[in-house]
Amino acid sequence: MIGRVASLVTRRIVEGCGSGHLGLEFAARAGRDEHTRQVLTPMRRDQREGAARSIAEVAERTGVRPAVDLHQAALILHCLTNGLVNEHIANPEAVDAEAVERALTAVLTCLLPPPPSDDPPRS
């Protein structure tokens, strides 16, 4: 499941550079302009809430317990995806689809570790 999610998000990051550029512009402007910040803040909050709901759904379907609070996990993923968009825009040769997918897979695996095995530990 983590591989499918990482692949889907990777495609959106790599193929959606136009929206990535727009996101960068809005974030930069929000730092200087209160009106833009008032528009952007609820949008970003909604994105994080959507991520939290998605994480909860994956956890429920798979029986995995997130390693951190859902809202913390959502913040981590939100920041990671924004950062990956920025890095891909700035250096698409180095931060290509493979690099993006590896980063997402690593973080998702840490946030949604497999459930502990019922087998007794081996000595």
From TrEMBL:
Residue ranges occupied by any BetI-type transcriptional repressor C-terminal domain in the UniProt entry: 23-111
Which Pfam family, any one, appears in the UniProt record?
TetR_C_6
SUPFAM superfamilies, per this entry?
A: Tetracyclin repressor-like, C-terminal domain
Q: Which domain of life is it from?
A: Bacteria
Q: What is this protein called?
A: Transcriptional repressor
- Give the organism the record lists: Nonomuraea solani
